[in-house]
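Name: Rpn family recombination-promoting nuclease/putative transposase
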Amino acid sequence: MGRYFDPLTDWSFKRLFGGEPGKEILIEFLNDLFAGEKVITDLVYGPGEHNGPASDKKKVVFDLFCTGNKGEKFIVEMQRGRQDFFRERSIFYTSRVISDQLPAGMEHFSYDIPEVYLIAILEFRMDKEPSEQYFHNICLMDRDSKEIFYKKLGYKFIELPNFTKEAEDLETDVEKWTYLLKNMSRLDQIPVYLNKRIFQRIFQIAEISNLTPEEQTMYEASLKDKWDYENVLATAMRESKLEGKLEGKLEGKLEGRLEGELKAKLETAREMKAAGLSISQIAQFTKLSIEEINKL
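Structure predicted for Rpn family recombination-promoting nuclease/putative transposase:
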């Protein structure tokens, strides 16, 4: 580990952007992404878990779910591994939030729903082919007139693998945020090009020597979980290359990957439990159920 923690582990992502200590950072991040399109002055954090339209439907869990000072809903996600249906998943997530706005038991609904936005930081490319475009600002637009059809739904994606600029080449605030997220764990000092006050604050929070022993334990567990996940994917890729064609083998590979992820999470939870962390803390950061943790 270097001087600063990796902001792209589950624990450190929530440490920077989640809860009251991270509210100022998240507000600044969102305002820079929206670049005057809207101005956010306050946020209220909400529960990350959302139920389906019926009790027997699958729940969805967001990394961060916030409500803005004007009632806007923000889903903020950090996504580690590539998914074939990531676009569909994004539509599903925002649709779930929109459908949740329907008040139960009302005989009439005016459809005056709040704005909903999904912001995702991706450690993978949405498409297999390399691209120079790293920031996607997506909305519903009329193909012919090029005018925005609906202004209350939007998606903002940052594809970290597509971002290749060095510190001295940074120009916009979005470029500075992207460089920070991608490179912070490899830096040993704050680049002079990251001269905003909020970045100074982030580096102060991210300095590993400033973490409490409990925070260091949770960060190390989260970092190990990330490494295990990456190793599972790397192993699956090597095996697929050795085996050649993937036809007829995808289902088995998916099951193996999921088993590997679960095994890594259980091992992480076991170490956190041995370190004396509470069951609720372990459940929050591993996304395991309390029943699974109690069995360890």
